[in-house]
Amino acid sequence: MSERSIRDQAAIVGIGQTPFGKRLDRSEFAMAVEAILAACADAGVDPRVIDGTVRYDMETTDEENLLAALGNPQLRCFLSTAWGGGGAASAIVLAAGAITAGLAHTVLVYRSRARGKQSAYGRASNLGGRYWERLDTALPGLNQWHVPHGLVSAFQEMAMIAMRHRIEYGTTDEHYAEVAVAFRSHAARNPHAVMRTPMTVADHHASRMVSDPLRLLDCCIETDGAVALLVTAAERARDLRQRPAYVLAGAMAAGGHHIRLSTFYERARRDDGAPRVARQLWAMAGIEVGDVDVAFFYDFFTPLVIMALEDYGFAPVGEGGRFVAGGGLAWPDGRLACNTNGGQLSEAFVHGFNNTAEAVRQIRGTSTAQVADCELAFVAGANTDPTGAVILRR
Amino acid sequence: MTLREHILTRGVPLPLPTADNAAFYAAARRGELHLQRCTACGRFRHYPRPLCPACLSREHVWERASGRGTVYTWTIVRGPTLPAFEASLPYNVVDVLLDEGVHFVSQVLDCPPDALYAGLPVEAVFVPASDDITLVKFRRRPPAAA
To answer: A317 pLDDT band (50/70/90 cuts)?
Structure first.
C-alpha cells in the first residue's frame, strides 16, 4: 500500500431519503432536493457549506441544478462516478478521495431516480423509466453486438452471466430463492421498503421466468426515490450531530461490463473489476473478510449477489450458492447479515445508494434489522461493471 | 396515449457500421464471418477495435473465420422485451465461443429451448436484416461435422 491513502480520512455524517414507491409522480430534481435537505438536517449541516459533489453518472440533477436549488455559491469540487451500478459505492470512494486531497471538506453524494415502469419523462435513456424501452434503432456503439439479437436489457444480459455461473458451479434456483427470501424478510421489518409481503421459496419458484435462469423475483424492483449522503473530513465528523460512519477503506477497479457482453469473458474472472477491488480493499482496511459485521451487495439480481460473495472472498469461488443456503444471508441468524434494509430486491432500487444509507444506520445502531454491536460494514457496487467498494467503521 | 407508449422504441434496432467495423458488415453481406486478426501476435479479436489487447499492436488484417464454435452461455428471453422482438418470444440468445477463441453474441436458429446447452456445437448462418446489414446467426451443427 502506498503512503497516501483515503484510509480513515472521511466519514459519512448525514443520510437523507425520500419515500420510495413504484410510481411517485415526482421529478428527479424535486426528489433529489428533498433527500439532500434531509441529509443536511440529519447531520446538522447547512446545505450552503457543501463544497463538493459526487454525481452518479446517469444523474439528471446536475451541478447547475443543485446550485440553483440550494443557493450554494461555494461548490469547488464536482466529480462523477462512471458505469452505472458499478459506481454505487465508488461515489463514497471519490468523496473520501476529494476530502483526502483537500479539494473539498463537505461532499454531497446523491442519487435520484424515477425508474418506475411508468416514470419515464423523456426520450433519453437517463430520463426515468426503463432505459431499454427507448433504445435507438441505429446502433453505432457496442450494444450493436447484442441488441439486434434481442438481448436488450440488463436482466437479459445478467441472465447470460448467471447461466454461466450455473454451468461452471451448479448454482441452483434454490440458491437464488435464498437471497430473495432473506432480503424480503429484512424488508418486512423496514417501514420504508416498497415490497414488504413475506416471501417463501415456493413464492420465488412460482414467479414467472423472465429470462432463463432469472425469475421475476430474482430481479430488483423498479422504483422511484432519492437518497443523499453527506461526507466530511474525519476530524470534522466528530463535532456533528450523528455518530460518524468512518470510511475505513475504499477502492475501485475497471473490468468487464454486462452491457458489453461480447468482451465480458475476455478476462479471467480473478482479473475482473470486483476481485481486484477486493484485493485493494482488504489490504487497505487491514482486516479479514470474517471481521465484517454486515455486508451490502449490489443486489440487482439474486445470482449476482452469490457471485459477489465469491468475488469479495466471503465464499470460495463456486461456493457462493452453498454460502447462501439455509438462510445464510438472513438477519439475525445467518452466516452473514446482508442488505438488512431489504436491498434493491425489496426496499427500493436507488442504484445502491439506499444500501449505503442502511450501512450507515447499521454503524449508528438504528437499523430495523440491527446487527448487535456492529462495527464494520461492507458496501459494494455492481460486480458486473467497472466497480468499487467501501468498508465503513464505527 | 401515455408518455411511455409514445416514446417506446417500436422499430428493429440494427447496427450502424462505423469506420472501425464496416469490413465486418461488408463480409457478412457476402455470407462470410470475418474477424480482426493481429498481424504481430496472430490473435483474433472481436468486437473490432484499433489495437490488439494482447500485444498492443495496431497492425491487423480482416480474416475469414471458420464460423464454427460452441455455446458458452445462453438465455431464453421470455419477456418483457422490445416490441420488435415480442412476436419471437420465447427466443434464445447465446454467447458462442468461436473456434478462433473469441466470444460472439447471437442466436441459434431453429433450436427449441430444451435443446440448448453449454457446449452445443454451432455454425454461422447469415440473415439479411436490411439492405446494408446482414446479421450473423448460428444453427446447430451435427457432432459428426465437428
So the answer is: very high
Q: What ipTM does this complex have?
A: 0.96
Q: What is the DSSP letter of A238?
A: T
Q: How far is A264 from chain B (nearest CA, A)?
A: 9
| Per-residue model confidence (pLDDT) at position B145 | 52
What residue spans define the domains of chain B? 17-145
Q: Superfamily for A10-118+220-393?
A: Thiolase/Chalcone synthase (3.40.47.10)
> Nine-digit cell at A315?
465464499
Strand pairing report for B121-128 and B134-140: antiparallel
Q: Considering CB atoms only, which of B13, B79, B103 is closest to A148?
A: B13
- Domain edges within chain A: 10-118+220-393
For residue B16, the chain A residues in CB contact (below 8 A) are: 138-140, 144
| Per-residue 3-state assignment (H helix, E strand, C coil) for A106-166 | EEEEEEEEECCCCCCCCCCCCCCCCHHHHCCCEECCHHHHCHHHCCCCHHHHHHHHHHHHH
Query: For residue range A373-391, what is the model confidence (pLDDT) as tens digits?
Result: 999 999 999 999 899 999 9
pTM: 0.96
